[in-house]
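To illustrate the input format used throughout this study, we show a single complete record. The first block contains the structure-token representation of the backbone; no residue identities are included at this stage. The design step must infer an amino acid for every position from geometry alone.
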């Protein structure tokens, strides 16, 4: 029960921070006000604040109090931070930074994969691709298999640094895939590009592999921009104090 209260409090405050409720570098309300608003103890608030400090969202100090940090200082490899940003709305800067990161990391990883992939590595990527095909035909979880495909590709690079980064990149890639696959026939249209990536790795052709992944990344980026442009923002009603207390204390 305590764990759920803590988690719900972190979730509520983290979402509020990322959505801009407290301003871009504004002060967090004092403990007594948060306790009243959320219906939790000071201990719960303090533990939640520690979690948010660890995620880089806020800073505390005797002279500054508890304040929101600039978004450039947030931990953008933290799955919760990414989730809160996705819920609040993905900014053009977020999409740009994600695209830049993929263009820097994935082409390098796939060149190495084409040189170093073992038989089991290739089998794992083929299994993920088969899962994507099946999801297109049966309506399964395409995004999960897409993520496994890209993680398998990075694992096949056999570079420990890249593999470590991939653990943090998972949430970022999932967010990207969840948006790009919203486009009608997006998953089906992307299959040939994924197949080209896989075939290039099997052929041990680094140049082909790099060209294939660049095409895939650029096409996904276009899909994301189209999906976000087509979306209509719906006004959200600010919850009452009673609703917020119920949200924070729900187990």
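Output of the design step:
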């Amino acid at each position: 029960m305590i764990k759920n209260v803590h988690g719900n409090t972190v979730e509520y405050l983290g979402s509020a921070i990322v959505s801009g409720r407290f301003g871009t570098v504004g002060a967090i309300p004092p403990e007594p006000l948060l306790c009243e608003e959320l219906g939790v103890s000071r201990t719960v608030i303090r533990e939640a604040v520690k979690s948010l400090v660890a995620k880089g969202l806020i800073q505390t100090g005797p002279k500054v109090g508890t304040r929101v940090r600039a978004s450039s200082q947030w931990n953008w490899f933290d799955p919760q931070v990414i989730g809160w940003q996705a819920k609040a709305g993905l900014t053009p800067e977020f999409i740009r930074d994600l695209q830049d990161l993929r263009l820097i990391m994935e082409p390098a990883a796939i060149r190495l994969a084409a040189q170093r992939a073992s038989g089991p590595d290739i089998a794992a990527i083929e299994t993920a691709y088969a899962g994507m095909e099946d999801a297109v035909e049966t309506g399964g979880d395409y995004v999960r298999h897409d993520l496994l495909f890209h993680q398998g590709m990075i694992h096949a690079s056999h570079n420990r640094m890249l593999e470590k980064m991939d653990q943090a990149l998972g949430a970022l890639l999932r967010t990207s895939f969840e948006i790009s696959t919203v486009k009608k026939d997006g998953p089906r249209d992307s299959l040939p590009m994924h197949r080209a990536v896989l075939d290039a790795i099997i052929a041990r052709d680094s140049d082909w592999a790099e060209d294939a992944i660049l095409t895939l990344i650029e096409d996904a980026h276009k899909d994301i921009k189209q999906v976000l442009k087509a979306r209509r923002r719906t006004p959200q009603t600010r919850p009452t104090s009673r609703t917020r207390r119920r949200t924070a204390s729900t187990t």
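Structural context for interpreting the output: The longest helix spans residues 92-116. Strands lie at 58-61, 65-68.
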